[in-house]
């Protein structure tokens, strides 16, 4: 590799990074560069870790510029060593930032070109062969409105460059898209790759040939070949290494991907794409496959009865949506035989079909039914003792059900996957710590107790940029006076910031009650009131909030993290309640039980650390640049009235804290 001026090939990678990120180093020539010792420290640590082929966990506070601090050493190391660099993120926004902003800068600095590829899940790509086949059989597969949508997809297909959903200026319905997107049985290297017009196969080839691959966490875990992972170095590609940004989400993503999920609606969808008795549409109708169609009708009827019975035996309570299943065979597996019979009929049918694409469609339908059958059996048998099992009620009426399972201790499975000998992973985020030394809580949750840890603070001057107000005189969240007081205190602090606020809730019910109480004052003051779950989707809510600098946004879970609103629009973050996880959710309950079985304190060892991290993430929405100023308001007096409250306060940024102890009327 030809190194640019300022990077000496005789130095260690860590030393090269220390030089590159110095005040007069390689990056100093970039117009947007400002020297940050925190960024330099992180880049040096990442370089050292990669050179040693060891893993690293690093918390880098907001404003460090962590993406560049891992990209430059990782790309440099990858090009020198010949190892592929995989960068995994949780959000699309960060993926786009890496590809469009950060990696082009790294390419300039690297001294030689390299290829970077974005790999999405195959369901994001249109399959040309399936699209053409769907148009040929449109009358048997789709209603007239769906056929119109298919034509719109065809027109887009004729001009698209990457063939993915994000390139489309409209949102197709799931039914139509599922009939034209890439599928494992249909869109294979042999069948589609040879033609050279398959977007997914081309993207996969680009990723295989590229030196750098950008991916998301969910896809990362879905692509892991767990059975063979320990037999070779690397993760997704031979001898690759991975950097996980937004690593605070890894445990929950891995828990979902390593668990089980089968929904009533999903199985119905898979059956009806084969044959829908009501609309008389479907793949089997175009084939005139009467025997298989009858088998689908039987499976559909048995499926509805099976899930209805599952709902009947599940005791959800007045407001709950989850019911923990503690014993095997909670209901008889009456669906097993109809699904087996259907798979047999589909297999026989596939053997008679000459058209390769049509045969693959039937085989893909068979695979989906077979997977559903296997998931159902694993759930009812509870064959994995390390998992917790539960039934989930979905839909507005809570009458659509799902079978769910997840590992109680993800660390036991995640540690060997990520940190085995010969593998190199860097995990980073702005919020990993709970005030614990050496990020011990996070490392324990992901099975990385032996992995080196580094905490790097933010370069922001929080003592000058932020004020924290804790309302001690707020009633306890469990008291009858809490709801009324909550709305009044929120109103009080909205006046102080003239709107411009995020109000973060832990329950949608509480959000709705407050919205009703404050809508009048918001109207009077000219503050646009933006409410999660009403009128706008999440991305549109954020855009409205950014565009109207005096607006007020009420949000729950998804607004505590991953939201970036620098500037005057966000000057006030109001935390209505400490974000403790609901202790009666089956997965949370099982984890608390596991800690207790081992002699630990479930509340202090799990509930408090998890809530501390979530609070840090919520508070982190406020200061996003060195020019931002604002206040954080905590309307939960437990941070000053309970012994554990000190843990929360000590984990917050080093900013002035005012304890508000007088009643609201005296304010």
SSE arrangement:
Elements: H1 13-20, H2 37-52, E1 56-60, H3 66-81, E2 85-89, H4 92-110, E3 116-118, H5 128-136, H6 138-141, H7 144-157, H8 174-178, H9 199-209, E4 212-216, H10 217-223, H11 226-229, E5 241-244, H12 250-257, E6 260-263, H13 264-274, H14 283-287, H15 290-313, E7 322-325, H16 336-351, H17 356-381, E8 387-394, E9 400-407, H18 410-419, E10 425-429, H19 440-445, E11 452-456, H20 462-465, E12 466-471, H21 482-497, E13 501-504, H22 508-525, E14 529-531, H23 538-547, E15 552-555, E16 572-575, H24 586-597, H25 602-619, E17 630-634, H26 638-641, H27 645-651, E18 657-660
Parallel strand pairs: 1-10, 1-11, 2-4, 2-5, 3-4, 5-10, 12-17, 12-18, 13-15, 13-16, 14-15, 16-17
Antiparallel strand pairs: 6-9, 7-8, 8-9
Lateral arrangement of strands in the main beta sheet: 3-4-2-5-10-1-11
Question: Mean pLDDT score, rounded?
Answer: 92
**Share in β-strands:** 5-15%
Rounded Rg: 27 Å
Q: Explain this structure to me?
A:
The structure is a single chain. α2 (37-52) packs parallel to α3 (66-81). With 667 residues, this protein is an alpha/beta fold. It has a seven-stranded parallel sheet with strand order 3-4-2-5-10-1-11, with helices on both faces. The termini are far apart. The chain has 27 helices and 18 strands. Residues 1-8 have low confidence and may be disordered. It is 46% helix and 13% strand. A hairpin with a 5-residue loop joins β8 and β9. The longest helix is centred in the middle third of the chain and has 26 residues, at 356-381. It is globular.
């Amino acid at each position: 590799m030809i190194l640019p001026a300022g990077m000496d090939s005789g130095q260690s990678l860590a030393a090269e990074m220390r030089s590159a990120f110095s005040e007069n180093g390689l990056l100093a020539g970039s117009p947007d560069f400002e020297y940050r010792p925190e960024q330099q420290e992180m880049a040096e640590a990442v370089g050292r870790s990669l050179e040693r082929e060891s893993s690293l966990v690093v918390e880098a506070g907001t404003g460090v510029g962590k993406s560049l601090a891992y990209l430059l050493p990782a790309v440099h190391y990858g090009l020198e060593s010949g190892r592929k660099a995989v960068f995994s993120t949780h959000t699309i926004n960060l993926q786009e930032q890496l590809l469009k902003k950060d990696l082009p800068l790294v390419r300039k600095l690297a001294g030689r070109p390299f290829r970077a590829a974005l790999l999405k899940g195959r369901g994001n790509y249109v399959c040309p062969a399936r699209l053409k086949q769907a148009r040929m059989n449109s009358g048997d597969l789709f209603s007239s409105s769906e056929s119109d949508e298919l034509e719109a997809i065809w027109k887009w297909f004729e001009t698209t460059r990457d063939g993915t959903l994000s390139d489309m200026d409209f949102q197709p319905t799931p039914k139509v898209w599922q009939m034209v997107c890439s599928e494992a049985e249909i869109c294979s290297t042999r069948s589609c790759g040879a033609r050279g017009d398959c977007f997914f196969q081309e993207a996969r080839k680009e990723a295989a040939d590229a030196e750098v691959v950008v991916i998301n966490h969910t896809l990362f875990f879905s692509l892991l070949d767990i059975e063979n992972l320990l037999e070779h170095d690397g993760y997704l590609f031979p001898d690759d290494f991975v950097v996980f940004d937004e690593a605070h989400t890894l445990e929950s993503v891995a828990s979902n991907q390593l668990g089980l999920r089968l929904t009533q609606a999903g199985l119905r969808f898979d059956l009806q794409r084969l044959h829908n008795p009501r609309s008389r549409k479907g793949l089997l109708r175009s084939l005139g496959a009467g025997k298989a169609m009858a088998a689908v009708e039987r499976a559909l009827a048995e499926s509805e009865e099976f899930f209805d019975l599952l709902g009947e035996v599940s005791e959800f309570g007045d407001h709950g949506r989850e019911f923990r299943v503690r014993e095997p065979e909670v209901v008889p597996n009456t669906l097993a035989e109809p699904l087996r019979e259907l798979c047999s009929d589909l297999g026989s049918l596939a053997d008679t079909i000459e058209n390769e694409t049509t045969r693959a469609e039937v085989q893909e339908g068979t695979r989906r039914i077979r997977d559903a059958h296997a998931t159902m059996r694993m759930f009812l048998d509870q064959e994995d003792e390390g998992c917790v099992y539960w039934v989930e009620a979905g839909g507005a009426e809570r009458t659509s059900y799902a079978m769910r399972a997840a590992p109680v201790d993800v660390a036991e499975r995640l540690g060997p996957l990520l940190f085995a000998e010969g593998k190199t992973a860097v995990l980073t985020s702005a919020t990993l710590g709970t005030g614990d030394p050496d990020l011990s809580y996070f490392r324990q949750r992901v099975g990385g107790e032996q992995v080196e840890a580094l905490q790097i603070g933010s370069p922001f001057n929080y003592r000058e940029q932020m004020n924290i107000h804790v309302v001690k005189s707020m009633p306890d969240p469990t008291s009858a006076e809490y709801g009324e007081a909550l709305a009044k205190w929120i109103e009080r602090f909205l006046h102080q910031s003239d709107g411009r606020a995020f109000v973060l809730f832990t329950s949608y019910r509480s959000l709705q009650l407050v919205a009703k109480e404050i809508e009048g004052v918001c109207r009077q003051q000219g503050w646009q009131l933006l409410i999660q779950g009403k009128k706008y989707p999440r991305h549109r809510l954020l855009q409205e909030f950014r565009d109207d600098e005096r607006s007020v946004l009420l949000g729950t879970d998804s607004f505590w993290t991953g939201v970036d609103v620098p500037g005057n629009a966000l000057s006030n973050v109001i935390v209505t309640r400490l974000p403790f996880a609901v202790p009666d959710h089956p997965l949370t309950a099982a984890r608390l039980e596991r800690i207790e079985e081992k002699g630990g304190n479930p509340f202090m060892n799990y509930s408090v650390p998890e809530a501390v991290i979530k609070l840090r993430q919520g508070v982190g929405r406020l200061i996003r640049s060195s020019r931002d100023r604002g206040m954080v308001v905590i309307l939960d007096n437990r941070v000053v009235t309970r012994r554990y409250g000190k843990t929360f306060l000590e984990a917050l940024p080093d900013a002035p804290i005012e304890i508000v102890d007088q009643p609201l009327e005296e304010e």
